[in-house]
Amino acid sequence: MAFEYAPAPESRAIVDIKPSYGLFINGEFVDGTGTSFKTVNPANEEVLAEVAEASDADVDEAVKAARRAYTRVWSRMSGAERAKYLYRIARIIQERGRELAVLESIDNGKPIKESRDVDVPIVAAHFFYYAGWADKLQYSGYGSTPLGVAGQVIPWNFPLLMLAWKIAPALACGNTVVLKPAETTPLTALLFAEICQQADLPPGVVNIVTGAGDTGRAIVSHPDVDKVAFTGSTEVGKAIARTVAGTDKKVTLELGGKAANIVFDDAPIDQAVEGIVDGIFFNQGHVCCAGSRLLVQESVADEVLERLKRRMSTLRMGDPLDKNTDVGAINSGEQLMRIRELSQVGDAEGAERWEVACDLPTKGFWFPPTIFTGVSQAHRIAREEIFGPVLSVLTFRTPSEAIEKANNTPFGLSAGVWTDKGSRILSMANRLRAGVVWANTFNKFDPTSPFGGYKESGYGREGGRHGLEGYLKGADS
Amino acid sequence: MTPTPSSTASSPSATGVFDDVVRSESSLRRFLHGLPGVDQVGCEARAAGLATRSIKTTSKAYAIDLAIRMVDLTTLEGQDTHGKVRALASKAMRPDPADPTCPATAAVCVYPDMVATAKQTLGESGVHVAAVATAFPSGRAAMDIKLADTRDAVEAGADEIDMVIDRGAFLSGRYLDVYEEIAQVKEACGDAHLKVIFETGELQTYDNVRRASWLAMMAGGHFIKTSTGKVQPAATLPVTLIMLEAVRDFREQTGQMVGVKPAGGIKTTKDAIKYLVMVNEICGDDWLDPDWFRFGASTLLNDLLMQRTKMTTGRYSGPDYFTLD
After folding, report:
1. Pairwise CA distance, residues B187 & A255, whole Å
2. Rg (CA), chain A
3. Alpha-carbon distance B187 to B208, whole Å?
4. Cβ–Cβ < 8 Å for A387, A365
């Protein structure tokens, strides 16, 4: 008899999803003047709530509230006082961790094991970390003068974590924010707004406006926004760069990626296989720094692929709220279409598709963990970001060839190196044109470590001391 | 480095597949050192990740009964008496006297001088007698004494022999000596099954555990076992993970299955289930059987029984409702 795991669902009773949500402006939830949209559970297409779509006028109200809070309260407060609020928020996030994790999994589709063990703990860690900087900015190297009002637009892949990456350093440095969560995942940002109320954060310091592209454009182009921070697609990032060109706005962009995960023949093979799986199937591959190109040395390619396939067959796909689920739902029908389309391009271009044999749920958005072998640099699936659980496998013969292939992309967000040789790790890291290089691990995040890209993966850094630079005027001012 | 040919021709490898590997000290060292390295952080993260599996209701009931059937109920004390061993053997056959549906354990594990007593009590119950031999737990004795120790236990009726390797020889790189030792003990075992104890707490690194695993499998061990229980740390999840990967890869290469036995420090049902999850996801169904996976434990059994009773009655009863031995 096989060892079947009985369903182990995390209870949803802890979250209270309201039928409709307004905008969080000046410390209060208000009805927007625009229309509304629905957010759905991608695992079963259940409509979760109606959410207001912020109009230009709503965004203007939010920016005004942020400006008032900036001028009258937040920029005048001492760093130590600001830190108290950030520490308080961090503690409330920990206290309400299960609620946040469950809501994140319901709205986003990611497995509860990830929202519980990765997203929420790192979110709290970010607030703790930047709280620590608030009264030490004079030692940052970037001065201690805030910029003003920050307009922040974040993606749907890590709704709460991206919010933390944006809001924690902005607030620590003395800025106030207007933040727009993605239209498919607004709920945890709205729960975060409640947490701001619970923490008695002064009104207007954090404003959350929900909506889609138009709302984002209104924020980015608003004349009283001093700083624009965006995480998302390279296409939108370019549009933002055009919008703010010629203005005084400071910009940081964290965009797409097509990371090479490079496995040498002397790698710890079993751990490398784990790293490949973490690299591309973590969060259904909805990760800008995903290791979506596996570069494996030819001499071990067969062995690595065989082991990878065996390991993939043990991945458990299904209900995101089941504690034993490894791979959850694709975030939206639109994204599923894109993954399918690019995978079909892979077939058409002659790459060989292999996917885990499993029954997909009939409702919701699902795509099985998939690898393409026989991929070359010329294939679109080796060049374009698929942003899904699809791995393109390429081979190399020498370290130089690995470097050439890894760097031969318009992106440059992250890379991975697997080898038992310490010296090779260092020489590879020096030659890889990527913002983050992981050695014998992948997709590890820590608030103390800066994150950001080369080339079309964006500019500016988030996290660590470097993450302060985007929210301060600089050492000379 | 000049390869030094071994002075005596070594024993052929158990499967024949590795005859070239075990031909000399240097060829054996090259093979063992050529196995892929283990990244400590990654290995421990994988074990910790598997330990988060949530095993409830029917799957928990299945796991508890399976774990009971996999226990080598153990007493290895200087103060052991024939009476104590008889009591333990009775418990192994009927772990829960109040519930006839409760399965028996796989074996009782005792010192060689207690084998006859254990055998007498167990009779034809199907519960095996395992004996620790080869100057357990340190293994510090001359080879002929270790072999005599083994033969003594087998003659007294032991079905299984748990031997210890010479860790000193292993750590000083004399792999062929360790190989020979295992091969000779195996011969002395006759029909009895051989479990090879590494004492992973003394080998320390995961690379060493992987090498020791291959060494023991090539020499013909039926089981590879983590620890004596006398050294801390004893069994851990990451060490067992490495050993499970080794038996999985060995079957891939030779078609032959080898069992794994973590021993020492596994005290709760929760712990035992973590190990079973690991067996399931690393090696698969085939190893989820007392013939291929065992727990070396003494206190674990009562926790399994308590949890089992809780599953069937819905109530926890106190430790007084379960027999000491």
Report:
1. 65
2. 22
3. 25
4. no
Is some CB atom of chain B closer than 8 A to the CB atom of A420? yes
Q: Any long-range contacts for A60-64 (C-beta under 8 Å, 24+ apart)?
A: A60/A218, A60/A222, A61/A25, A61/A26, A62/A23, A62/A25, A62/A26, A62/A178, A62/A207, A62/A209, A63/A149, A63/A151, A63/A178, A63/A207, A63/A219, A63/A222, A63/A224, A63/A225, A64/A224
Paired strand residues for A40: A47
E-assigned strands of A339-462?
352-355, 370-373, 390-396, 414-418, 436-439, 458-459
**Which of B188, B212, B69, B50 minimizes the C-alpha distance to B131?**
B188
Say if strands A28-30 and A23-25 run parallel, antiparallel, or are unpaired. Answer: antiparallel
Global pTM reads 0.95
* Best A3, A117, A443 residue to mutate vs chain B (most B CBs within 10 Å): A3
Nearest alpha-carbon partner for A455 in A256, A165, A297: A256
| Rounded Cα–Cα distance for residues A9 and A349 (Å) | 41
Element spanning A378, H or E: none
Cα–Cα distance for residue pair A252/A229, rounded to 1 Å: 5
Q: Tell me whether residue B230 is one of the annotated catalytic residues.
A: no
Domain A260-439 class, CATH top level: alpha beta
Q: What is the longest distance spanned by two Cα atoms in chain A?
A: 71
Q: What is the C-alpha to C-alpha distance for residues A375 and A346, in angstroms, rounded to an integer? A: 8
Residues 6 or more apart whose CB falls under 8 angstroms from that of B222 comprise B193, B194, B195, B258, B259
Within an 8 Å CB–CB cutoff, is residue B303 touching chain A? no
Domain ranges within chain A, ordered by starting residue: 20-255+455-471, 260-439
Of B37, B42, B280, nearest to A3 by CB-CB distance is B280
What count of Cα atoms within 13 Å lies in the side-chain half-sphere of residue B222?
21
Asked whether the beta carbons of residue A6 and residue B285 sit closer than 8 angstroms, the reply is no
Tokens coding B106: 């796989």
Between the CA of residue A290 and those of A141, A241, A338, A472, B172, what are the distances in Å? 31, 24, 16, 30, 43
Q: How confident is the model at residue A104 (pLDDT cuts 50, 70, 90)?
A: very high
Q: If we measure between CA atoms, which residue out of B73, B184, B161 comes closest to residue B122?
A: B73
Q: Is B172 helix (H, G, I), strand (E, B) or coil?
A: coil
- Across the beta sheet with A227-231, the strand order is A28-30, A23-25, A206-208, A176-180, A149-153, A227-231, A250-254, A458-459
Would you say the CATH fold of A260-439 matches that of A20-255+455-471?
Answer: no
Closest residue by Cα to residue B177 from B224, B231, B139: B139
Do the beta carbons of residue B244 and residue A270 sit within 8 Å? no
Q: Shortest Cα distance from B244 to chain A (angstroms)? A: 12
* Complete domains list, chain B, with CATH: 36-312 (3.20.20.70)
Residue to mutate among A113, A117, A261, A270, with most B CBs inside 10 A, is: A270
Report the first-to-last Cα separation within chain B, whole angstroms: 55
**pLDDT tens per residue, range A300-357:** 999 999 999 999 999 999 999 999 999 999 999 999 999 999 999 999 999 999 999 9
Reduced 3-state DSSP string for B182-222: HHHHHHHHCCCEEEEECCHHHHCCHHHHHHHHHHHHHCCCC
The CATH number fitting domain A20-255+455-471, selected from 3.30.2270.10, 2.60.200.30, 3.40.605.10, 3.40.50.1820:
3.40.605.10
What are the tens digits of pLDDT across the range A350-379? Answer: 999 999 998 889 999 999 999 999 999 999
- Residue of B225, B271, B274, B303 with catalytic role: B225
pLDDT tens, position by position, A28-73: 999 999 999 999 999 999 999 999 999 999 999 999 999 999 999 9
